[in-house]
Amino acid sequence: MTLDPDVAMIFEAVKAAGSKPLHTMGVQYARMLIEKAPQPPAPEMAEVTDGAFAGPHGDVRVRIYRPVPDDGAAPALVYFHGGGMIMGSVDTFDSLARHLAASCAAVVISVDYRLAPEHPYPVASDEAYAALVWAHANADELRIDPDRVGLAGDSAGGSLVAGAALRARDEGGPAIAVQLLLYPGLERVSDRPSMAEFADGPGITRDDVIWMKRLYLGDDESADTKYGVPALAEDVSGLPDAVVVSAEADVLRDGVEDYGQRLRAAGVPTALLRYPGVAHGFLSQAGRTRRAGTAFAEIGMLTRAKFARGNR
């Protein structure tokens, strides 16, 4: 498999800088690196505001992106950033949130959920679901349409999306117009072919996945639940329409695509998109790579179509 030239150039530069697998760095060093990483170019917004809501484990910071001026209720995506549940913030994923808002023509509410290992499962899961509930309850103040609220997340954030969608279904929670699962981390390490083929990257490695999942979920796999490990859900029927994105050179690829196929088989309208020539996290390079720009255009088109239907 050959990476796109612009993607390969990024990985070559990272390798030349002496990058090592995340699990060998330790949490604090990994966090420092992601916080220091330069943000790629991103669209200008009509309005960006910071705020917070009262969550089940304390106040949760949010950053709200409004791509165009509006006088009425706009569609919205409650967005959860990646970072393996152990790193990342609304600051480090600012560029991705802006591209998401611009491509989907939606208000993006980026949620700064608490991180492991200081805050292991179920803290982030609880805060993700609470963010969905809060957005619906405060739709008027947020100037968003409660009938057009979706969830979006990349990598670890995609796992939070899937868990929140399952919980909303099970508990009769707020309606979700669409769920965007962007190369989500839905399971612990498995014996899937992509886990072997891309065990050493590019991007995250198999051992990185093991490390990050243990920091968030703990060592006892028998204690895992479908809200923390969505692939464990036996029944995925009755879930919101989905857009599921995978990367060809991603250790998580086969688990992502299996979940998308399960959604389809359960009658959930699902667009399953695999992007060739890219690796895990490729959407964070929008503005630097052509494939990421193409992906956002297609994700945006599908999401706008879902919002046109609302929850009907």
Summary?
This protein has helices at 5-16, 27-36, 94-104, 123-137, 139-142, 156-171, 193-197, 206-217, 253-265, 290-309; strands at 47-55, 58-66, 74-80, 107-112, 144-154, 179-182, 242-249, 270-279. It is an alpha/beta fold.
Overall mean pLDDT score? 96
What's the name of the CATH homologous superfamily? Alpha/Beta hydrolase fold, catalytic domain
User: What portion of residues belong to β-strands?
Assistant: 15-25%
Structural class: alpha/beta
* Shape descriptor: globular
The CATH class assignment is Alpha Beta
- Number of beta strands: 8
How would you write the strand order of the largest sheet? 1-2-4-3-5-6-7-8
| Helical stretch tally | 10
Name given to the CATH architecture: 3-Layer(aba) Sandwich
- Head-to-tail CA distance between termini: 42 Å
Describe this structure in words.
This protein has 312 residues and is an alpha/beta fold. The protein has a single domain (5-309), classed as Rossmann fold (3-Layer(aba) Sandwich), CATH 3.40.50. Helices cover 38% and strands 21% of the residues. It is built from ten helices and eight strands. The protein has helices spanning 5-16, 27-36, 94-104, 123-137, 139-142, 156-171, 193-197, 206-217, 253-265, 290-309, and strands at 47-55, 58-66, 74-80, 107-112, 144-154, 179-182, 242-249, 270-279. Strands 1-2-4-3-5-6-7-8 form an eight-stranded mixed sheet, sandwiched between helices.
